[in-house]
C-alpha cells in the first residue's frame, strides 16, 4: 500500500469532514459596499505573486456576504497557474472552513494539484470522495487523472482508466488520448504511441500540434529522424502548422544525427514563417557549435541572444562550459560560470560536475574540492558522477590513497560508492605503484561481491601483468574462464600484452587463435601489441605475416608499431623483407 506523504495528509481529513459536515460556522466578516466589492474582485487578475494571492484570499474572506464559489475558484486557479500547488490545496481547506461548499470544478483543481505533485494516488481518493458526495466528475476531471498517471510513468494504469471511462459513458476526447500518447513517448515506447495514435485517429479524432510534436520528439530520441520528418510532412499536409516546440525537437534530432545542414534549412523555414526562435532553439544551436569545437561561434550566438532579449538558460551555459572543459580551458570555463551566476542563472548539478571533472582532468584538485564545497553550500547534492570525477582526479594526480579516503566523505553525504568508483581506485592504486594496497582492495571487493564484473577483473589482470606477476596473471585469467564469464577483447588484449612483455610470443599467438575460436576476434589494438612484441624480439617473419593479416582486416599499424618498423628499416637498410 502506498504511504501518504506528510505534506498532504493534513488535507484529507478536510475532505472527509466535508463529506459528513457540508457547512461549518462562519468567521466574523465586515460589510462591504457593492462598488468596493466589485473593485476588489476585479483587481484579482492583477495578482503576480502567491503571497499577494493569499492576501487577496484573506480580503475575500472578510467581505460580507462572501464571494461565491466561482470567484474563490478563479483565485485558487491563479495560484495553480503560479505552480504553488500545496498553497492552492490549503486555500481550498480554508474556503471549506468558511462554510463555502466545494463544487466539481474545485475538486478537479485539487486533483490537478495532487497529480502535479506526483500524488495521483491521492487524486483517486478525492475522486472517490466526489462520488460519495454525489458530485459527478466530468471528462476534464478524469483526463486530469489520466495525465497524472502518465506523468508518473504509470501508462498501463492510464490506459486501463481510459477504457473504464468509455465503459462508464465518458467519451475520451483528444486531450485524454493525447495524454496517453505523450505518456507512451515519455517511457520510450514510441512504437506503441504511434500505434495508439493511428488507432484513435482512425476513429475520427483529430490531434493538435503537441501530440504530433511528442511523437516526433520521441522518434528523434530513438534516432529515427527520417520517420520524424515523415510525420512532419503528414502533419503539415493536413494543414496543421508546427510551432516553435516542433521545430526545436526536429532541430535537436538533426543536430544529434550530424545533419547540421538540414537543421539550418529547417531553421530558415521557421524564420520565414515568422516563428521566432526561443531559448531552446538557440541552446540547440549553441550545443551543436560546442560539440563541433566552434566555441567562438557559440559565444557570438549567445551575445546575439542577449541583443534580441533571449536569456540563455542553464543548458545553454552548460554546453559552453563543457566545450571549454573538453579543451582544458578551465579559466574560460570559470568565466562562463561566473557570468551565469551574475545573470541570475542558477548552476545545476551538471554544471558543477562538468567543472569538477575539468579541474580533475588537469590535476587541480584544490579547485575541484573548492567547487564541491560551493556546490553543497548552494543546496545541491553531489551525485555519483561528482564523486567518481573526484576519485578519478585524485588517482590521476598520483594520490590514490586520498581517493580511497574520499569514500567515507561520500557516505557522509548519503552517496554509496558504486562499482565504477572502486574500479577507478583499483586502477589508480596499480598505476601509482601501490601494489599491496591494490590487492588488499580487490580482496575487499571480493568479500562485498563487487568484484564480479569484467571491468574489475581486467584492471586486476592488467595490474598483475604490469608488476611482472605473469604466473599469477595466467592463473587469474584461467579462473575467469572457469567462472564462465564472457571475456571481452579488452581483457584478452591485456593478457596478450602481458605474454608479449615476458617474451612468450608463442603463447600470445595461441591466445589470438583462441580468441577467434571463441567468437571474440582480436581488434587493431590486439594485433598492434602482438606485432610490437614480435618486432622487439626480432621475429621479423611473423611480424610481416601479421602486418599483412592486419591489412586484410582493414587494420593499420599504430604510432608505436610504425616507430618500431622505422627503427628496423634504419638499422637494416639493405634488407627488403617488407
Can you put this structure into words, describing what you see?
The chain is mainly alpha-helical. Among the domains are: 1-137; 523-578, no CATH class. It is built from 33 helices and two strands. Strands 1-2 form a two-stranded parallel sheet. It is elongated, with a radius of gyration of 33 Å. The chain starts with 5 loop residues before the first helix and ends in a 7-residue tail after the last helix.
Overview features:
single chain; 578 residues; mainly alpha; two-stranded parallel sheet; 71% helix; 1% strand; elongated; disordered N terminus
Write a concise synopsis of the structure shown.
The protein has 578 residues and is mostly helical. 71% of the residues lie in helices and 1% in strands. It has helices at 6-9, 11-20, 34-42, 50-61, 69-81, 85-97, 104-116, 120-132, 139-151, 155-167, 174-186, 190-201, 209-221, 225-237, 244-256, 260-272, 279-291, 295-307, 314-326, 330-342, 349-361, 365-377, 384-396, 400-412, 419-431, 435-447, 454-466, 470-482, 489-501, 505-517, 524-536, 540-552, 559-571, and strands at residues 30-31, 63-64.
Amino acid at each position: 500500500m502506498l504511504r501518504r506523504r506528510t505534506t498532504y495528509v493534513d488535507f484529507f481529513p478536510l475532505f472527509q469532514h466535508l463529506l459528513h459536515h457540508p457547512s461549518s460556522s462562519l468567521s466574523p466578516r465586515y460589510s462591504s459596499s457593492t462598488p468596493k466589492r466589485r473593485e476588489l474582485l476585479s483587481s484579482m487578475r492583477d495578482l503576480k505573486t502567491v503571497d499577494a494571492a493569499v492576501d487577496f484570499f484573506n480580503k475575500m474572506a472578510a467581505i460580507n456576504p462572501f464571494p461565491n464559489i466561482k470567484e474563490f475558484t478563479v483565485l485558487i486557479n491563479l495560484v495553480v497557474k503560479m505552480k504553488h500547488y500545496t498553497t492552492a490545496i490549503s486555500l481550498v481547506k480554508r474556503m471549506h472552513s468558511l462554510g463555502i461548499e466545494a463544487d466539481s470544478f474545485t475538486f478537479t483543481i485539487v486533483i490537478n494539484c495532487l497529480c502535479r505533485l506526483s500524488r495521483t494516488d491521492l487524486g483517486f481518493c478525492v475522486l472517490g470522495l466526489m462520488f460519495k458526495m454525489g458530485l459527478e466528475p466530468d471528462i476534464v476531471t478524469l483526463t486530469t487523472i489520466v495525465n497524472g498517471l502518465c506523468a508518473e510513468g504509470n501508462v498501463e494504469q492510464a490506459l486501463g482508466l481510459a477504457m473504464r471511462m468509455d465503459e462508464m459513458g465518458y467519451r475520451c476526447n483528444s486531450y485524454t488520448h493525447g495524454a496517453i500518447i505523450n505518456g507512451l513517448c515519455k517511457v520510450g515506447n514510441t512504437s506503441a504511441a504511434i500505434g495508439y495514435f493511428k488507432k484513435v485517429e482512425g476513429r475520427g479524432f483529430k490531434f493538435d500540434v503537441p501530440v504530433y510534436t511528442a511523437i516526433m520528439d520521441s522518434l528523434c530520441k530513438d534516432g529515427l529522424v527520417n520517420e520524424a520528418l515523415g510525420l512532419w510532412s503528414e502533419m503539415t499536409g493536413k494543414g496543421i502548422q508546427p510551432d516553435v516546440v516542433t521545430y526545436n525537437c526536429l532541430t535537436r534530432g538533426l543536430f544529434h544525427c550530424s545533419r547540421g545542414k538540414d537543421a539550418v534549412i529547417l531553421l530558415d523555414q521557421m524564420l520565414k514563417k515568422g516563428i521566432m526562435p526561443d531559448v531552446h532553439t538557440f541552446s540547440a544551436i549553441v550545443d551543436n557549435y560546442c560539440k563541433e569545437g566552434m566555441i567562438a561561434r557559440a559565444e557570438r550566438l549567445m551575445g546575439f541572444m542577449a541583443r534580441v532579449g533571449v536569456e540563455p538558460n542553464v543548458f545553454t551555459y552548460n554546453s559552453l562550459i563543457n566545450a571549454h572543459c573538453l579543451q582544458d580551458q578551465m579559466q574560460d570555463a570559470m568565466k562562463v560560470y561566473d557570468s551565469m551566476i551574475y545573470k541570475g542563472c542558477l548552476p545545476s548539478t551538471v554544471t558543477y560536475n562538468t567543472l569538477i571533472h575539468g579541474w580533475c582532468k588537469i590535476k587541480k584538485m584544490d579547485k575541484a574540492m573548492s567547487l564541491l564545497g560551493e556546490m553543497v553550500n548552494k543546496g545541491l547534492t553531489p551525485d555519483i558522477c561528482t564523486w567518481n570525477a573526484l576519485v578519478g582526479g585524485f588517482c590521476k594526480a598520483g594520490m590514490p590513497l586520498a581517493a580511497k579516503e574520499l569514500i567515507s566523505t561520500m557516505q557522509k553525504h548519503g552517496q554509496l560508492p558504486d562499482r565504477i568508483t572502486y574500479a577507478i581506485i583499483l586502477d589508480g592504486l596499480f598505476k601509482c605503484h601501490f601494489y599491496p594496497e591494490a590487492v588488499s582492495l580487490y580482496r575487499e571487493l571480493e568479500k562485498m561481491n563487487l568484484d564480479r564484473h569484467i571491468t574489475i577483473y581486467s584492471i586486476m589482470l592488467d595490474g598483475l601483468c604490469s608488476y611482472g606477476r605473469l604466473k599469477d596473471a595466467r592463473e587469474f585469467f584461467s579462473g575467469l574462464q572457469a567462472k564462465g564469464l564472457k571475456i571481452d577483447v579488452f581483457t584478452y588484449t591485456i593478457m596478450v600484452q602481458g605474454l608479449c612483455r615476458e617474451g612468450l610470443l608463442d603463447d600470445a599467438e595461441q591466445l589470438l587463435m583462441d580468441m577467434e575460436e571463441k567468437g571474440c576476434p582480436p581488434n587493431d589494438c590486439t594485433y598492434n601489441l602482438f606485432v610490437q612484441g614480435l618486432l622487439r624480439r626480432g621475429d621479423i617473419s611473423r611480424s610481416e605475416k601479421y602486418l599483412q593479416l592486419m591489412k586484410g582486416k582493414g587494420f593499420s599499424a599504430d604510432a608505436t608499431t610504425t616507430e618500431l618498423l622505422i627503427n628496423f628499416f634504419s638499422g637494416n637498410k639493405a634488407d627488403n623483407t617488407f
